[in-house]
């Protein structure tokens, strides 16, 4: 296996990144005098103050924070945050049996603790992580499904809310990343057939909307299986989103692969490493580091994309909220409810990007 | 003005800076700098980095605006008057450290852009002119290539030719060889020496002390935004008056 | 790409079996044959299963269903359609709706995106911070949530009787957006033709002006003449037709409006959601484009005394567009794909109608294939055009 280096185009020389015109300078020189500048500031500030005053007035001063009576909200001129208090359980947990909600709370705690520990470089050793993930998987499985330890059995069709969003997202990333790496390697493989298969796969899936892939997962995939064999719908959908995610991620990783100088391959060859050894120990670690910012963007996008399951009727947090907002007593307060859901997505998205920035710092300081 | 040994003492200076000061927000980069340059004179400006030497020559064609003092170019005062700025810029060519060639245009297009758009030359005439100067800098065969296809030295010579196509009376050089590999420095310096020999008025910011010794009529040393010393090269290198100049020369000539 | 180290295995012929087995070219072939066979086998296996399953469930195959009568109505159509038309025509209606809402969304997203992108690099700190906040918020809330939110907003707007008035130009109500519209007149078609003619003439005149400049050195400013041509010709046509100025104002009438033109609530919600979401990404593309031109480029242009508009036209714009156009185009494609969210709020786009067709005929494979092919064609055509554009404008470096 000594054919790798010839496949690697030297990265195109990039344009001198120094001494950029900040568009700022350009605009100031060409569009704004200082009088306009200050006028603009005054107008913008006035608008901003009005906006914040409205937010304060509507969201805090005149808002109703707690009541079980929708008429109290109706009488108020401000926001009705009480709708979130009143409806938080169906919004957060969907169709899951009401009396079993404590299992979902426990599941989310285990999930978040496991994820947070796994993201910490200090704990990156397999003797800790493997048992941790086995424990987490088993306990989350037991809590979600039940049917053991005297817990009531709950079918996946009843799962819902935030735990479902979390599971979909985690499944997407855990299944999607390895597929993405394989597709990216395939697209840069020395074998033309492998390249062809990868290119066709990646490009045709990137060319269609996620919705059509979900349709395939729900309506077409069962036809692929021999009679009598079935795959759980939730699993099919997760795999569908994961493969869609993988096709985008593969292009990002390919960018990282392309950025690796030829010398790295040549050095690896001179140590007589095989293709897979070179890939695993030399190339991939560098490529993934290089493309990390773009990888993060797609991981955040994957989290947002889990919301597409509303189309095929899974009860994630958005579907659950939309269903709750059918309640004629409370549906007037949809703005508050959707703001809450948006805040949940913004929170997790922000947390992910903060973590990614931390990882970039760790990389820059040579810690990982 | 300690410029007693100038060849042409009597004529009025083409560039005259009087007590020019400039600030970047709170930081003062130029302190009351005065400088006269006569027609045909070659001035080399040197000094440690951050001494304001680049800013000094960038004020002459108003890539930077000075905030106090006066700058006259051929008797025309540099103010924020757009017409004056335009006239002055047409008379002054500038060569940058990083060449700043337009990467999306061919070498020939880089050279003809200015003459066609600002001097209203016909395309044919502008191309003749461009080829004339490309021959002068000895790379006529590269006319239809793109800048990034050339070596650094070639790019810098194209940049010099681009300025010459405006047929300026004065040329400013802002560290023209600092971004070049050693083997390319000579080809650019040779081009500049030829230009000097043809009688061009030049202000050159550079660390090439050999160039200063052989070409300059006058060497200006700057530090911390001030003009510390200015003298003909024999005096400047042989018998520097200021302690700071001596330290600087020691450091730069040691290597 | 197939230099499987010719130096080693290609130089001398393999002499025995061992040599062949260990030769790289042989292994390369074997791996590929194995991979191709695996893919083909998998495809064949799946195909077999699909055929077996379909015949077991008595589901027809093939695209014959496209000619059958659809038997369902569609709320919004731009071409004539009734429930007696075929499934094929229903899907065509859906495609046209997809393209319509996407086109409108692209215009809105571009206008907002460019404004915010320029604000992102403003020297005005306040404006810049607001633009940044806007970008972060619209990009990080799922587009589907945004569409559902806007649909809910419109559904909860007052009925036409209490509709919100928009400066006398229209109304916003739970029936959608109703606005004033000139009464249709034969002149309009001709005005449109005049507009196109004006654009063509302006382009030709600019080209001539450039030729003239190159030949004589004299510069003719074509900016105002071009604007005059593009705006003036339609105006002239309008005057020739006797300046038809009948305008239909929407009036509240019973439970609805009479007169004017109305855009359905679903259209407004879908367009708002997908275009606001995309505008955040477009803003970032524009910011990157503006910042892509190094400062030295403008300084060099100034040092050869180019006027600001020449600097913009010949130095900054050509370099900024190289950076902006390719990602902008893929953002447009992504907006078109996002328009398939229509199915959630009931706007009859391609996917929504395809979904109905799928449920009525049971022919999931074919219905989904039709949808996928349409989007795939849009994507592939766009990316081919983009590749051509990139080759055209590529900055040559080697």
Written account of the structure:
- The complex is a heterotrimer of chains A (368), B (255) and C (398).
- Chain A is mainly alpha-helical and 368 residues long.
- Chain A has helices spanning 4-7, 23-30, 34-61, 70-75, 82-93, 101-118, 126-145, 161-187, 192-206, 210-224, 233-258, 262-270, 275-290, 292-305, 317-324, 334-364; one strand at 315-316.
- Among the domains of chain A are: 23-61, no CATH class; 154-317 and 351-364, MetI-like (MetI-like fold).
- Chain A contains 16 helices and one strand.
- In chain A, helix 11 packs antiparallel against helix 14 and helix 14 (292-305) runs antiparallel to helix 16.
- The longest helix of chain A is centred in the last third of the chain and has 31 residues, at 334-364.
- Chain A starts with a helix and ends with a helix.
- Chain B is of the alpha/beta class.
- Helices cover 38% and strands 24% of the residues of chain B.
- Chain B contains nine helices and ten strands.
- In chain B, helix 5 runs parallel beside helix 6 (182-197).
- Chain B is globular, with a radius of gyration of 18 Å.
- Residues 1-7 of chain B have low confidence and may be disordered.
- Chain C is mainly alpha-helical.
- Chain C has two domains: 20-58; 87-183 and 246-393, MetI-like fold.
- Helix content of chain C is 68%, strand content 6%.
- Chain C has helices at 6-10, 17-22, 24-56, 87-120, 125-140, 143-155, 186-216, 223-240, 265-292, 295-303, 308-338, 342-345, 350-361, 364-393, and strands at residues 164-165, 170-173, 176-179, 181-182, 247-248, 251-253, 256-258, 261-263.
- In chain C, strands 1-2-3-8 form a four-stranded antiparallel β-sheet.
- The interface between A and C is large, with 74 and 75 residues.
In short:
The complex is a heterotrimer of chains A (368), B (255) and C (398). With 368 residues, chain A is mainly alpha-helical.
The number of helical elements of chain C comes to 14
Q: Give me the number of helical elements of chain A.
A: 16
Q: Which structural category do the helix and sheet elements of chain C fall into?
A: mainly alpha
How much of the residues of chain C is beta strand, in percent? 5-15%
Describe the largest sheet of chain C.
Answer: 4 strands, antiparallel
Task: Calculate Rg of chain A over CA atoms.
Answer: 25 Å
Under the CATH scheme, which class of the largest domain in chain C? Answer: Mainly Alpha
Q: Given this structure, which CATH class of the domain at 154-317 and 351-364 in chain A is correct? A: Mainly Alpha
Total beta strand runs of chain A: 1
Shape of chain C: globular
SSE ordering of chain A = HHHHHHHHHHHHHHEHH
* Spatial gap, N to C terminus of chain A: 29 Å
Can you tell me the residue ranges of chain C where pLDDT is under 50 for at least 5 consecutive residues? 1-11
**Level-2 CATH architecture of the domain at 154-317 and 351-364 in chain A:** Orthogonal Bundle
Count of the separate structural domains of chain C? 2
Strand content of chain A: under 5%
Let me know the largest β-sheet of chain A: none
Using the coordinates shown, work out and report the CATH topology of the largest domain in chain C: MetI-like fold
CATH homologous superfamily title of the largest domain in chain C: MetI-like
């Amino acid at each position: 296996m000594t054919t790798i280096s010839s496949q690697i185009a030297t990265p195109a020389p990039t344009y001198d990144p120094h001494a950029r015109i900040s568009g700022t300078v350009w605009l100031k020189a060409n569009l704004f005098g200082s009088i306009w500048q200050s006028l603009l500031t005054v107008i913008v500030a006035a608008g901003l103050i009005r906006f914040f005053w409205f937010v304060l007035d509507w969201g805090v001063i005149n808002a109703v924070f707690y009541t079980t009576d929708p008429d109290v909200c109706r009488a108020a001129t401000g926001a009705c945050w009480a709708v979130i208090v009143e409806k938080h359980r169906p919004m957060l947990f969907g169709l899951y049996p009401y009396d079993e909600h404590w299992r979902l709370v426990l599941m989310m705690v285990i999930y978040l603790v496991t994820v947070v520990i796994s993201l910490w470089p200090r704990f990156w050793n397999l003797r800790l992580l493997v048992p941790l993930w086995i424990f987490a998987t088993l306990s989350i499985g037991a809590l979600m499904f039940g049917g053991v330890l005297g817990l009531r059995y709950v079918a996946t069709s009843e799962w819902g809310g935030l735990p479902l969003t979390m599971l979909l997202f985690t499944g997407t990333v855990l299944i999607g990343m390895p597929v993405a790496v394989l597709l990216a390697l395939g697209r840069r493989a020395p074998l033309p057939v492998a390249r062809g298969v990868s290119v066709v796969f990646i490009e045709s899936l990137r060319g269609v909307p996620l919705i059509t892939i979900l349709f395939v997962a729900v309506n077409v995939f069962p036809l692929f299986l021999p009679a009598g064999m079935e795959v759980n719908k939730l699993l099919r959908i997760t795999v569908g989103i994961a493969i869609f995610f993988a096709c985008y991620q593969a292009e990002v990783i390919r960018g990282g692969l392309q950025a690796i100088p030829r010398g790295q391959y040549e050095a690896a060859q001179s140590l007589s490493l095989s293709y897979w050894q070179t890939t695993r120990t030399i190339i991939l670690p560098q490529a993934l580091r290089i493309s990390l910012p773009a990888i993060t963007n797609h991981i955040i996008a994957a989290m947002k994309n889990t919301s597409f399951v509303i189309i095929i009727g899974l009860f994630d947090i958005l579907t659950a909220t939309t269903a709750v907002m059918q309640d004629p007593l409370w549906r007037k307060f949809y703005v508050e409810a959707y703001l809450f859901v948006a805040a949940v997505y913004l929170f997790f998205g922000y947390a992910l990007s903060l973590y990614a920035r931390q990882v970039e710092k760790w990389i820059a300081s040579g810690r990982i | 003005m300690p410029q007693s040994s100038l060849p042409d003492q009597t004529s009025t200076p083409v560039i005259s800076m009087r007590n020019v000061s400039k600030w970047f927000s709170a930081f003062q980069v130029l302190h009351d700098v005065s400088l006269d340059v006569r027609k045909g004179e070659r001035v080399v400006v040197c000094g440690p980095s951050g001494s304001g030497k680049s800013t000094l020559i960038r004020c002459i064609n108003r890539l930077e605006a000075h905030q106090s003092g006066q700058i006259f170019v051929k008797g025309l005062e540099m103010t924020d008057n757009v017409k004056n700025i335009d006239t002055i810029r047409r008379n002054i060519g500038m060569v940058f450290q990083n060449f700043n060639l337009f990467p999306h245009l061919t070498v020939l297009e880089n050279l003809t852009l200015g003459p066609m758009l600002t001097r209203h030359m016909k395309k044919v005439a502008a191309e003749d002119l461009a080829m004339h100067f490309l021959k002068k800098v000895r790379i006529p065969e590269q006319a239809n290539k793109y800048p990034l296809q050339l070596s650094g030295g070639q790019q810098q010579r194209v940049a010099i030719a681009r300025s010459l196509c405006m047929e300026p009376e004065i040329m400013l050089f802002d560290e023209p060889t600092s971004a070049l590999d050693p083997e390319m420095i000579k080809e650019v310096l040779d081009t500049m020496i030829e230009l000097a020999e043809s009688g061009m008025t030049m202000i050159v910011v550079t660390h090439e002390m050999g160039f200063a010794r052989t070409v300059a009529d006058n060497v200006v040393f700057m530090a911390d935004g001030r003009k510390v010393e200015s003298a003909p090269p024999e005096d400047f290198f042989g018998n520097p008056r200021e302690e700071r100049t001596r330290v600087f020369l020691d450091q730069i000539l040691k290597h | 790409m197939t230099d499987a180290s010719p130096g080693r295995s290609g130089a001398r012929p393999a002499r025995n079996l061992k040599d062949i087995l260990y030769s790289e070219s042989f292994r390369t072939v074997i791996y590929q044959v194995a991979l191709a066979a695996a893919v083909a086998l998998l495809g064949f296996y799946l195909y077999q299963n699909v055929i077996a399953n379909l015949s077991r469930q008595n589901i027809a195959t093939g695209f014959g269903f496209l000619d059958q009568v659809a038997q369902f109505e569609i709320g919004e159509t731009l071409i004539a359609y009734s429930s007696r038309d075929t499934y094929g025509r229903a899907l065509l209606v859906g495609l046209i709706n997809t393209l319509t809402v996407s086109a409108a969304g692209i215009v809105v997203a571009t206008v907002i995106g460019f404004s915010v992108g320029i604000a992102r690099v403003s020297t005005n700190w306040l404006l810049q911070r607001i633009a940044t906040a806007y970008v972060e918020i619209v990009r990080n809330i799922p587009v589907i949530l945004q569409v559902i939110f806007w649909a809910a907003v419109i559904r909860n707007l007052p009925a036409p009787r209490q509709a919100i008035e928009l400066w006398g130009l229209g109304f916003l109500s739970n029936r959608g957006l109703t606005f004033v519209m000139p009464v249709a007149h034969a002149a309009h078609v001709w005005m449109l033709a005049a507009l196109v003619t004006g654009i063509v003439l302006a382009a030709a005149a600019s080209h001539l002006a450039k030729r003239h400049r190159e030949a004589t050195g004299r510069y003719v400013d074509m900016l105002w003449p071009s604007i005059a041509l593009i705006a003036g010709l339609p105006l002239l046509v309008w005057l020739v037709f006797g300046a038809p100025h009948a305008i239909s104002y929407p009036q509240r009438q019973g439970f609805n409006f009479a007169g004017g033109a109305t855009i359905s609530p679903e259209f407004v919600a879908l367009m708002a959601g997908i275009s606001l979401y995309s505008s955040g990404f477009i803003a970032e593309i524009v910011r990157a484009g503006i910042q892509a031109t190094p400062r030295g480029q403008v300084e060099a242009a100034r040092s050869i005394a180019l006027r600001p508009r020449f600097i913009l036209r010949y130095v900054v714009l050509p370099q900024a567009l190289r950076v902006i156009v390719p990602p902008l185009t893929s953002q447009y494609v992504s907006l078109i794909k996002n328009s398939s969210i229509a199915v959630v709020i009931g706007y009859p786009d391609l996917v929504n109608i395809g979904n109905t067709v799928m449920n009525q005929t049971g022919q999931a494979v074919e219905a989904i294939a039709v949808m996928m092919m349409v989007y795939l064609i849009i994507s592939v055509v766009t990316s081919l055009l983009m590749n051509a554009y990139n080759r055209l404008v590529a900055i040559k470096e080697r």
